[in-house]
């Protein structure tokens, strides 16, 4: 069992990081559109909590990955996650072909970086 846990630890931490980054961005976007102080503070609290937890998750990843790989996986995939899931799917913000191409190139670059470890 510990062998299985060891083999899925990094992918699970990367996935958790992505989820937390998306939740943080949702919180901040919703807080920006809040019409009451209570709603603003609630969304800010959610965004900041998710952001803090994402930093802890990133720190855990650094225990097992070199910095250049951890940065590529978290920041690059974080960009793609926010671009696709938060902006396009949740908030229905338009994403033109050049942004889609850029997102694909970021993911390809991450694949090259992660594959070279």
From TrEMBL:
Gene3D superfamilies referenced in this protein's UniProt entry, alphabetically: 1.10.3730.20
Localisation: Cell membrane
Top-level taxon of origin: Bacteria
GO CC terms: plasma membrane
Keywords in alphabetical order: Cell membrane, Membrane, Transmembrane, Transmembrane helix
Gene Ontology terms for molecular function: transmembrane transporter activity
Membrane topology: Multi-pass membrane protein
TM ranges: 12-28, 40-62, 69-91, 97-115
InterPro entries: EmrE-like (IPR037185), Small_drug/metabolite_transptr (IPR000390)
Name used for this protein in its record: Small Multidrug Resistance protein
Protein's organism: Thermoflexus hugenholtzii JAD2
């Amino acid at each position: 069992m510990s062998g299985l846990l060891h083999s899925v630890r990094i992918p699970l931490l990367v996935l958790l990081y992505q989820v937390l980054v998306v939740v943080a961005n949702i919180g901040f976007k919703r807080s920006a559109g809040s019409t009451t102080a209570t709603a603003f503070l609630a969304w800010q609290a959610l965004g900041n909590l998710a952001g803090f937890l994402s930093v802890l998750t990133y720190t855990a990843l650094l225990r097992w990955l070199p910095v250049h790989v951890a940065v590529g996986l978290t920041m690059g995939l974080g960009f793609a996650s926010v671009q696709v899931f938060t902006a396009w799917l949740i908030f229905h913000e338009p994403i033109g072909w050049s942004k889609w191409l850029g997102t694909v190139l970021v993911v390809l670059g991450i694949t090259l970086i992660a594959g070279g470890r």
